[in-house]
Write a structure and sequence with these properties.
This protein has about 160 residues and is mostly helical. The chain is about 60% helix and about 10% strand. It has seven helices and three strands, in the order E-H-H-E-H-E-H-H-H-H.
């Protein structure tokens, strides 16, 4: 869960469009091609063109933002300010359309549920009776004396008696 997804790529690494297959480009709010300097500058420029073409294949983002591709060189400290300005522009747009607040609410809801889920799992599995029953049921499954589903039902039923 992030407010802005900046995908960093290396120029000339040979994997420019591999992200399409994995769906990572679709998730990106921007793509920064690093090491756009020296003998990799031309490869970086070519990668920028390829990524810009690829981004046009994806539907409009729900935020209303149009993803951008930029070049940078961390070594030469070039393009870094432009990246920060782009992120700031995105945040301004997202807050102006209430997308930012809606997404933040969705993130907070997710983390509330995840925190409760993790706590319940931890509390449940740390109970001495459950620890013993889990090991017993694993052995029973290994010996084909029960099914995973029956074992789970048995272990979960212990929660009612604890």
């Amino acid at each position: 869960m992030v407010d802005f997804f900046l995908l960093l790529k290396l120029a000339g690494a040979g994997d420019e469009l591999q992200g399409i297959k994995r769906g990572i480009i679709e998730m990106a709010d921007a793509i920064a091609i690093n090491k756009a300097d020296g003998n990799t500058l031309e490869a970086a420029k070519l990668a920028k063109v390829e990524f810009n073409r690829a981004l046009h294949l994806y539907p409009q983002k729900t935020s209303g933002w149009t993803p951008k591709v930029t070049l940078c060189s961390a070594l030469k400290n070039e393009g870094i300010i432009e990246i920060w300005e782009m992120i700031s522009e995105y945040i301004k747009l997202a807050k102006g359309t209430s997308y930012f607040d809606k997404r933040r609410h969705k993130q907070n809801t997710y983390w509330l549920h995840k925190t409760i889920e993790n706590r319940l799992k931890s509390d449940f599995f740390n109970q001495p009776k459950v620890k013993v029953a889990l090991q017993e049921q694993l052995k029973r499954i290994e010996n084909n004396e029960t099914t995973p589903f029956a074992a789970a039902e048995y272990i979960l039923s212990l929660n009612k008696t604890l």
